[in-house]
Amino acid sequence: MKITRILLFSALLMLFFAASARVEADHSNPSDYQAGEESDTTRPLNLSSLPAAGQNVVSQAVLIDFSKTNIVTKADSGINDFSGNMGALNKNGISYGSSRLVCSKGNSCAQQLKWDFSIDSDREAYTGIFYSLFGLTDTRTTFDGTTVGTTSFPEHSLDLDRIDGQLIEPDGPRKFKTLRIQLANQGTATVTLRVELKDTKGGGRFSRFRISAVTAKTLIWNFRDSSQYRTVGGKDLDLQKAKILSFVIERENIGDKIKNPLKGKLAIHKVSYVPDRTEVEPLSNAKLLDLLERRAAQYFIDWTSRKKDSLGIPQDRSTFGDLLTVGGIGFALPAYIISAERGWISRSAAISKTLSVLRKLDDTSSFGATPMGRIGYKGFFYHFLGVDGKRKLNYDDPATPTREDLNTVELSTIDTGLALMGVLAAQSYFKGSAEKEVEIRSLAQRIYNRVEWDFMLRTEAPDANRFYLGWKPNEERKGASFEIPDAKGKGKYSGTSANPSTLDYYTDEALIDILLAAGSTTHPIDAQAAYCALIKTPDENKLIRTHPGALFTYQFLRAFINLQGVTLPACPGEGAANWYANSQKAINTTIQYVESNPPGFSTYGPNAWGLSAAEGPDDQYRAYCAPTAAIGVPPQDGTVTYYGMISSVSSGTSLKTRAIQALRNAWKRKDWHYRFSLPDAFNDNISQAGLAPVEGNPLLRKSGPWMNRQLFAIDQGPMLLHLENARSGLIWNLLAKNRNIKRGLDRLRTPLENSLQEEDREGEEQER
């Protein structure tokens, strides 16, 4: 398979217009950032182009801004910047209206929620809008493939007194003081708007605001001041578990002398929190990187499952509470390590989170060849899990044009490899004698030993010794081909007999799997044969390209293993590859392409070169890359990722400087969010992207700038690990000491038969 990262879209229930929509020793000093050694692939940077530091301030935490750049599709309109959904509130009323686009003559588009409400004449009728303040309210799920129910997420709420949760802030907890709402009454009559905060336990506070006809206003509500609120039903708001913000138009309230028109027009422009202190761009580069690393670690505190059956397993993305990622486990477990080592969370909290994940991965009853109720098979894991901790099951939604329940999740070689890297990092870090740390080490080894690597290794020529991308049990399905039967007839591998989907070209993911499989003592493979089976022919510039060419395909392995100074044997007809230098060359090749900018995209430039996998402005997944770094024909539409640039921070001084430049430029562009730091991707002019209509998720605009505020585990994770490795080498050092990794590297250098004989001799010597 030529594009190696696969994102599977789950159905996400968003109560948007009352319909369903698609929608990881003490290193606490921030000055200890170190870059890796240079290779001859790095390029000098003009330091005079660096933006001035310390001049940018963020004083609001935006919940949703309809006038800004996030919203391109209808699904975007139903999700806010805190990854919460939005929907309608009605009693005997008509849905509040629709989100409409307003464009000026210069094709400059601004978004506002046009709330054209209509209320039933019943005195108790009302209509309104709600925003979930942190994560989803609920979504449709199935755990048996037949019965569809609703799963809610009350565990994910916003602590208004400690908005960063358990993450320890250097200047003490941050809190929100007030709400700031920018809106306009575009109707002909005065409207009384009820603004309400509710928690997950039924308590709440509200206040009312009168808005005159044809008036634009900014409402500031101090929900902490008892003179400015009343409780909901006599039950006060729990400030530590806030969940819903509502705007309500009541038909009539006789006791409070409220009477609203039956019809009206409101426009919501922007809703934000006002915190107790501003966030200022740090003057020091070290402190700037420390701040970003802290925020990247925050993802794995915010967006990991809090359900009992899947506790600690990360969400694929911040907006999908029911879609958990196995590959993301590989970054979540190191995130817990980094957070404990930095003092951002306690060591006991890191141990608890780690044990929860490992115990789930070690559950032998969850492995089997049946389509439902399993976490994996033959030691491998499924790509995505549900909140029950088992294979993610979809369902047939009437609003879905195709049979969603047939788009099944595959047993994933790549995601299993990523997860095991995190598992082995935890094994090396928790080396104490306490019972729980001993258990972590034991669980990690059992999980690693259980993987039957040869099960996913193709034996037929010409693709022999290459890993299949995936396997699925026997079941009815659509989508990508899985037509190659396994030896026991339990399921089928990815691809067709004429075109098997394997890890054929070099990519970091393939090297991760080969290294792990090489180190196995229970199911070892011929590591050199698998390594030499990869297609890795240098181009005219001596770059060994991955097929997709996206930066993540050159950055994943180095997030875990420092290959600087590590040489692997040459394969027949090939020279020995320096993978550290190759990744640097790939990054610099991408930078050179972007700076020359043959397509003429507005976004491309010296501070916008992170071409890597992302969801574009139309919510479609693409492995963006430079053609000069890819073998295939790459997608390009001007979209750039921040994580692709920041993940280069550990690849030498020059690339570290470029990453800092890109980060400072993000502050200058006002892309930095008070709570969630950088967006995942951005595009300064989507009119150059050639966006086409998307079935079931129509486009609201085709021009103007765009950014993606939803966050992804496998984007935040590499960025976090590279930041820490550039700073201390923590994850590199842990895995360099891990006996399984050391064994794998040794076997890659030595024929399998010789290495097994040598290990037997070492074992006998240790016994003596």
From TrEMBL:
Xref: Pfam families: Glycoamylase
Signal peptide interval: 1-21
InterPro entries in the record: Glycoamylase-like_cons_dom (IPR019282)
Keywords: Signal
Glycoamylase-like domain sequence ranges: 508-738
Protein name: Glycoamylase-like domain-containing protein
The organism of origin for this protein: Syntrophus gentianae
